[in-house]
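For the sake of transparency, this paper describes our internal protein records without simplification. Such a record has a labelled line for the sequence and another for the backbone structure tokens. Nothing more is needed to write down the fold, since each code stands for a local backbone conformation. For reference, a complete record is included directly beneath this paragraph.
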Amino acid sequence: MSARPSAAREATRSKIQAVAEQLFASEGFDRVPLRQIAREAGQRNVAAVQYHFGSKEGLLSSIVDTHRSEIDDRRRDLLEALTEAESEADLSTLIGILVEPLAAKLDDASGRAYLRIQAQGLTNEKMRPATQSLVRRIRGHLGALDGERGDPFRDRFALLLLFHALADRAQAEETQAARRGARRDFVDSLTRSIEALFAA
């Protein structure tokens, strides 16, 4: 008997999160009131959203956390495959591991919404373990390239390029202004652009 209410709560939570994800992506986080999320998720009042997530910010954190965990898992798998293959992790390979799991989010509506939300620059959560490891390795390569002259703005520029390019692509695929078949060229070009920015 106790499993049924729990399943119903989880279904309600998932529905609210899915609706909010699409609204935040299409209308912007600041423009979407809790009342609208509750209504479009089939809830009678705002209390349902607050019950499951505490606040609008808590709802945003839940959305972002879901995707970041998946992305980090994929990066961990790619880094482990490099280790097992005893492959040399050059800068290009590491940038590919940075970009590919994010680009995979273009495959479904939820992932595309996440990319558009991230481009709004709303969250600054701590990086997950595999992503931390990847960033350390990229910085190791950059240190060898830079010597003493490091660029304090470069990481920020790279993140802006990465998320805004992917968000733009997500919107283009949603509206079918871009063909999914041409995505490989887009991802390769994005990867090269970020590598060039880092190496500049």
Observations:
- The first helix runs from residue 3 to 27.
- Residues 66-199 form one domain.
- The chain has two domains: 1-54, 66-199.
- The chain has a mean pLDDT of 90.
